[in-house]
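@channel anyone free to eyeball this complex?
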Amino acid sequence: MTATMTDAPPPAAPKAEGAAGKRSGRSLGQILMIVAGALLLVAAVRVITGADQLTSEGQVGAALGLAVPIGLAGLAGLWSERAGVVNIGLEGMMILGTFGAGWVGWQTNPWLGLLCGIGFGVLGGLVHAVATITFGVDHIVSGVAVNLLALGATQYLAKLFFAEGKPAEAGGNPKQSPPVDSLPHVTVPGLSDALQSVQNHHWFLVSDLAGIVGGLITDLSVVTILAVLLFVGSWWLLWRTSFGLRLRSCGENPIAAESLGVNVYQYKYVAVAVSGGLAGLGGAFLALVTSHTYLEGQTGGRGYIGLAAMIFGNWRPGGLAMGAGLFGYSDALQLRNGGTTVHALLLLLVVLLVVLAGWKLYRSAVWQGAISLIVGGLVLAWYLLTDEVPSDFVGATPYVVTLLVLSLSAQRLRMPKADGMRYRKGQGK
Amino acid sequence: MKKLTSRIDKERLLLGIAAPLLAIVAALVVTTLVILATGKNPGDAFSDMVTYGFASDSQVYILNKATTYYLAGVAVAIGFRMNLFNIGVDGQYRLAAFVAAVLGGALTVPGWIAIPLIVICAMATGALWAAIAGVLKVTRGVSEVISTIMLNSIATAIIAYLLQPGKLGQLDQAGTLVSTKPLPSSSYFFSIDTGPAGVLWGFFVIAVVVGVGYWFVLGRTRFGFDLRTVGQSDTAAAASGVGVKKMVATSMIISGAVAGLIGMPTLLNDSHQFSNDFPAGIGFTGIAIALLGRNSPIGIALGALLWGFLERTTNHLEFQGYDKEILGVIQGVIVLCVVIAYEVVRRYGLKRQQQRVGAELAAQAAAPTKKQEVA
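replying in thread with the prediction:
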């Protein structure tokens, strides 16, 4: 994300260089250990504070529903940035998706709406692709333009298509489409109820697990399932097939890719079009599943948040899913009046900060350790002196958490090497 | 005299004008097509826009709007010149305007002390809020794009928390609008009454000063040179002894300080209080305007005026049976066309330059002796 607007053209893609640094993947065992540790910690905090909402089925279910559009936006960003195109136009492509879904959805059926949402997203992606790949415009500049254009076009079209005549009778107005039928929801029969009853006992760890699993399998939208499949599919396609290797090579070193006979333009176009489609699907989810109608301003900056989730996840699908989950969870807290729940999370933050401080001091990073301890102490004081976090701050939780996490971990992140850089065919000669 | 004319390269000038012209023509074509597609007459719309836009009351309105937009454009452009993408201008100016409004409402000193205090307070708040992103970038390597997006949302939350009756806000008589304590009338900024055309905001003068300062600092000082160098190549800048990290933090802070001014024309000349309907999203408008004006002080001014013109005139289109929502389409198309046109023109210029240099070299090679005699 280094290349922005100056008088000079964006920096040219790097000439062939040594391979990227060593892979820092974690083994499956390590990941499971981390997850188990986190669960234990959360369960302990819940028991100590009595904030049962922390892992309740409703909370987790709501979090999942809110995480899906963010996750899809992030996945869209992942596709495009892996091919070397920074896509800050995600927000605009999501807006196009909400409009497409609402427009076709209310006239026909939600399935076609979903398709149209994806299609509109692809259109947005193609505009971005033409500007950045063919014309070599700075990626962020083009993204901003796509956002402006998408917002303007949908507002204009919504006025034309929803404000008068039949749509208006069906409940449309310039800022809203008529309602769309809902897409089917899935609940695993039997299991959900059983988990619900286990959760109501509030046992240590067992109930937490039941709540989380219950939230993940109850009243699932089909689009959520589709999104999960897309995550797994994207991972497989990008990291396990030769197509994916070539696509990623365009983001790491397009000149090397070109010298091996990869049609870099074509791969970039495909990646950005897919990116637009995924963002459009994220928008369609908002229109069809979250609210059953197109609403102006429905995306509420989720495209940007998705981008943040992707960076948070180090340009990897797994990390991105975690980031999206984090955002979804904190969004759900706000929605479910989570003042007390966030208050309980303060205690969790204290524990984490103390652990971090201990680790930093052990590694003899005195300053960082001391700062972590001081912040931890302040948060502890906050926790002890109040009973509830004001609801306005609950809404800010995901942003604060992101800033914290990024400032503690950003140096370990590694973006694709030629990300955001201008590439022209044959420039390596 | 000869020196002056030789410094103006005709071809460069021509190419410089070509890009925005190309973009505006393309935007006109697209807008025409869009209006035609809805079965209405685009010609009437355009002529209405022009006649209405050049009426004197519209001109005052446009100038007032452009004052705010110009400051926003400059705030964003400072970051752009440095290769920094300060999306956070939006949060910075809202927080700054809020804090300044609270201070202004509480002050009871005479205007000539209060106004500078309010303005300085706004700039300091904006600078401080931007500094968070700047410091995080240089010490922790956090992308300023992400951190400023987060800071925007956090600023929204802080304002929402503090702007409540009983905290720093108060409910108006109608019971619908929450605002800070209004400024005493002694703290109003001067304005120029132009009669029936309306009131021209005096903050216009400050915007001009900021523009001149921007041009001078960036184009005529060591600091500006360093800043532009870092923007073009941070390795080259580091090699020539510029502290890149310090420059990044500094320019972010300056950008934030200018962003702090964005809310001031509205606060000191118009609303005199910060309420929950204080204009939002101007930071993003600033991005578009900085792009349009290519970060040049004059270009940004033209972009700001164009934006004000479009806003004023498309609003009026509603009375002529057109949809005012065409505004967003026109603006989006203009920005997209402008960036593409700049790139196309740049490539064309580069090609021309290569051809010219190539031709000169070929001529030199063909007639070496003759060239020497001339010299």
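from a first look: The first strand of chain A starts at residue 185 and ends at 186.
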